[in-house]
Amino acid sequence: MRVPGSDLDLRLVGYFTVVAGHANFSRAAAVLHVAQPSLSRQIQRLEEHLGVRLFDRTPQGSRLTEAGRAFLPQAQALLQAAHQAELTARDGATPREFTIGYVEDLVITHAVRRLRHRHPTVRIRTRHLEWNDAHALTDRRVDALVARAPLPFPADRLRLTELWTEPRVLVVSTDHRLAGKESVTVDDLSEEVLPQCPSAVPQWSDFARLEPRPDGVPARSAPIDYESFEDKLDLVAEERTVLILAAGDRRPQLRPGLTTVPIEGIDPVRVVLATRSAEANPLIDDFLHAWSSDTPAPRGR
Hints:
Pfam families: HTH_1 (PF00126), LysR_substrate (PF03466)
Shape: elongated
Keywords: DNA-binding, Transcription, Transcription regulation
InterPro entries: LysR_HTH_N, LysR_subst-bd, WH-like_DNA-bd_sf, WH_DNA-bd_sf
Family: Belongs to the LysR transcriptional regulatory family.
Protein name: LysR family transcriptional regulator
């Protein structure tokens, strides 16, 4: 038994709606990235399948016939129904829980809210992590991680997708010789002492310390121990070290006695979404879509 409409090619229906919208085969072909003769043949195939003429060709372009005008709203509804069926099928395969990790002071509220609205039956959670939590993804405590790159731990089994970039600034004491300057360069930092994290991967440590330097001279290391980020801010306030951070990092601004100065001529910080490279999760793509849909630009972008 033949199912009504089962032989109707949705691709041809889509072509029809584009030509109808532009009333011109040449413009429609350009939008669809197909050759005009090929598009004309596809529309002819659809007309032969339906047994009616859908367009009248004129020197000025094309216009819908009576049959074409009657078919257009049904074609649009058919394409919308097919799209909804695809989304429904994807939701059927969507995990019932999804956890998004984030570090430091990164804000992910707007994108998470949009994702929850799109998937009301999924339990979507957020989890604040330590900046150097190397195992949150591999241990499956989170399904995705928003962090600043380069990551301070190995990322060879992760997939990184850039969300935005932030310029970098120098954090100094308000009494420091560079405090109050409009900007500084790498040359201005040649005599400054920078903290070094022995537990971080070299790629992260080099990026945080602006190494290698153009003159080949390594950055001076602070021979001091610290246990937390707050400890480092205390050391900066005491003028025992300086710190280089992303401009969007608001934590130094909450600490009295510190100020920031823009650094010119260096690469910005990339804020990325890190996910497990061997795993396909439809919620990851939806989170990225939610992020790009009118999400307010973070500070420092």
